[in-house]
Amino acid sequence: MNVMGIDIGGSGIKGAPVDTEAGVLVKDRLRIPTPQPSKPDEVAEAVASIVRHFGWNGPVGVTFPGVVKDGVVLTAANVDHSWIGVDAAELFGGATVLNDADAAGVAEMTFGRGRGERGTVLMLTFGTGIGSALFTDGTLVRNTELGHLELHGKVAEHRASARVREEHDMSWEKWAERVAEYLKHVEMLFSPSLIVIGGGASKKADRFLPHITLDTPVVPAALQNEAGIIGAALAAAGGS
Ligand code: BGC
User: Fold this and answer.
1) How many CB atoms are closer than 10 A to CB 191?
2) Which of 106, 125, 144, 151 could be disulfide-bonded to 240 (CB atoms 3.0-4.6 Å)?
3) pTM > 0.90
4) CATH code of the domain made up of 104-222
5) Chain region(s) in the chain for CATH 3.30.420.40
6) What pLDDT, on a 0 to 100 scale, did the predictor assign at position 225?
7) Shortest CA distance to 127 belongs to which of 6, 7, 5, 4?
8) Which residue is closest in CA terms to ligand 1's atom 5?
9) Closest ligand 1 atom, CA of 76?
């Protein structure tokens, strides 16, 4: 089945039709910059323009970088706060809407590094914020928000997201120390059997993962930047 997947991020909105059985994009993805400020109507117009670009009439799945419960946005840490309380599913014309990290995790569990993994698997995405997706024997526990755990009195994603590294021009090694500290905290809380690192930073995993030693295996995501699009499509196809 082909389903349109759209991934809303802090800096870009990306979409493409996805073959949900194969887990691949069937056309080149389209990326447009996230409108600034990222208010609901402007973002909805950007989402609609992606749908129009592909001349799409079928089902659509959309990720959102915040807590989404039954299609309604409950938090908006890295997008305009006017999103809180908005029924995004309705605003996007009846699309299936879910948290971005949850979508990426579902894709990674179905087609990527988490495939066939039992036990507790954590997908953590490092981008503008830190997103999390928690799986127990392959079942997703939605909206876990582990990027907002507190470390040294600070929100973890304010210390260790990929954006923090870029904004402070931090070396990979220095940033890896912060990521390691965060991962150890998460490891202590959940005793996972696998941690999958996704988000923009996963493309550069070789620069920081070698500096991180944990008891739990830590691996880069296989689907990288496309995980959100594929996971959004899977959710709309009824796969999550
Ligand atoms: C949000 C999460 C989101 C993550 C990655 C966090 O700030 O609270 O919902 O998954 O950023 O975008």
Assistant:
1) 11
2) 106
3) yes
4) 3.30.420.40
5) 2-99+226-236, 104-222
6) 83
7) 7
8) 131
9) 8
